[in-house]
Specification:
heterodimer; A: mainly alpha; extended; B: alpha/beta; Rossmann fold; 2 domains; six-stranded parallel beta sheet; 11 helices; 12% strand; elongated
Amino acid sequence: MDAVWQDILSRPGIYAGAICTIGLMTLIYRENAFYRFFEHVFIGLAAGFSIVVLIKEILDPFLYQPVFKKGEWYWTFVFMFGLLFYFIHSRKYNWLSRLPIGFLMGFSAGQAFQGFANTYLPQLAKSFRPLYVTASDGSLDMAQSINNLIFMIVLVTVMSYFFFSFEQKSKAIRNSAQFGRWVMMVAFGAIFGTTIMARMALLFDRMYFIFSDWLKLVQ
Amino acid sequence: MAMTPKTSKPRDLWERLQAIDRRVLYTLLLVVITLPLFKPIRLPMVTMPSTQKLYQAIESVPQGGFAIVSATWSGGTRAENMPQTEAILRHLMKRRLRVAIFSFDQQGSQFSYNIASRLAKEYGYEYGKDWVHWGYRPIVGVVLKSLVRDIPSTFATDRDGKPTRDMPVMKGIKDIKNVDVIVEIAASGIYMDWIGLVVGANPNLKFGFCPTAVMAPETYPYMDSGQIVGIMEGMRGAAEYEKLVNTTGLATKGMGSISLAHVLIMVLIIIGNLGYLATRARGS
């Protein structure tokens, strides 16, 4: 018994993590008070953690240290400008909160414009691909040509599915849209498959933690 | 495959196959995930081209080149992002590149520092000379825009508040043009910010992305267009990368469990659908 207590005291974090993991996994059986307790522990921890991060990682290095330790007093104005957000709770002065909101909107819009251009224009350029690809010796690169053909068919058919501005009366457009829909289903299937893989990885990590880090039954 | 409805009991085997108690399914899942921990299953692993491309991109950087690793993940995705971080840092240190690490997530900052400190001892990396940890940085857009123009000012101090400007690891690093490779390890769509604000600013920059498996499919078009040089997809990608850098980490250990779990899920999907088809055929 002494050995167990000694083990608990030597690595309390591991024991706490193991108990929390088991507590949360009891939901698999059914909803219960044990699970609820640990759920609230996690919510409380997350809330407390975010407050500590705010003070220690943002207010201290970006406000307190520059203003009070380095004498860069002008940062105070930025802080006060940010505080204007809180006037959103005042009926009389809530217009003041629109100043920082407007500033951030302008900043975000400009950034989004730059981001859009850099993200999607290269994509557009790369969408124009030759269907007859030649290798370095001038011969036909069959594999790449087929790849490009598949790419073009998928691109066109998926785009045709999103022709919502007019009724799709033409049979060719309807069939193309139908094929595009199937292609998208394949993509959604791939996303769902990788989602399962990710969830299994999380479960494996917890089991590894229980049996290796906590119980030390496996290496 | 839902829990048995309380209102109507399944009448025969085919209906029962569609209504297996979820507790039975979860127990089976726990068993197949846990079993390979005690009896490891080593399956042959084929490296995906996306993982290989990321590896090759880092291999092509000359020794002493400058790499930035952003570890924007937290405990919730530790299973996938931790082995990814370890595999990437291991490769960078093996290649003797200068490494700078930071994170847009406070937890990711701490996790990545712990991993890097451990690997630094293994590879004889000296802090400040061979690697540096810039710590946690809030507000993605501001940091990335600033990083493009002026790296020493953007990361004026490291995670402990020490000035970075005079550290040997930062020698010759002024802006994004001096950076050879950036690897983002994330559980979010932050790669879009990197591509939108940073990648185009240096045509020679190699940008690699290590997402969770959930996110991987949506990132492939960016690899196809060359905006991302390579992708390490979740835990499977990490296992492939571990193989490339000749190490056995958590990801490699997990592949047996994950493969078995996938087989179980496929079998359950087939059983459920067989039950559904049989019931429908009988009804018609």
